[in-house]
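During the reporting period the student researcher (J.K.) took over the structure-prediction task from the postdoctoral fellow and processed the backlog of single-chain submissions. One of the processed entries is reproduced below for the supervisory committee.
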Amino acid sequence: MAQLDRNMKAGLVDRRRLSGVSARCCSRPAAGSRCARPRGRTALALEAVWLASTLIPAAALAGRLLGELGDLRRAARIVEAAWKANPHSELADTYAHLRPGDSARERLARVETLAR
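J.K. obtained the following structure tokens:
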């Protein structure tokens, strides 16, 4: 931790991004924690996105969790915003699979829209 403290004091580490990473890590499922519940995990993932909107793993996780809960519009907005900041294959995969049961053609069309 001493190295992290020194880097934070030197301004090399962004506190909001570090908090986003922490919230993203906490949103992983763990037996017996509030992270085991989908809504609790979603809340933590959304907190990570709010703290660091360009953090790809947080945006992808929030998109997947919101998609599972049926909030497709919000999930798409989060993934699209992260994509604009930094296009990444994990975001494209999340965006393609927001709606389970879609055909490959529908997923392709969705990803092409994201790429534009």
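The committee noted the following: The chain has a mean pLDDT of 77.
J.K. will present the remaining backlog at the next meeting.
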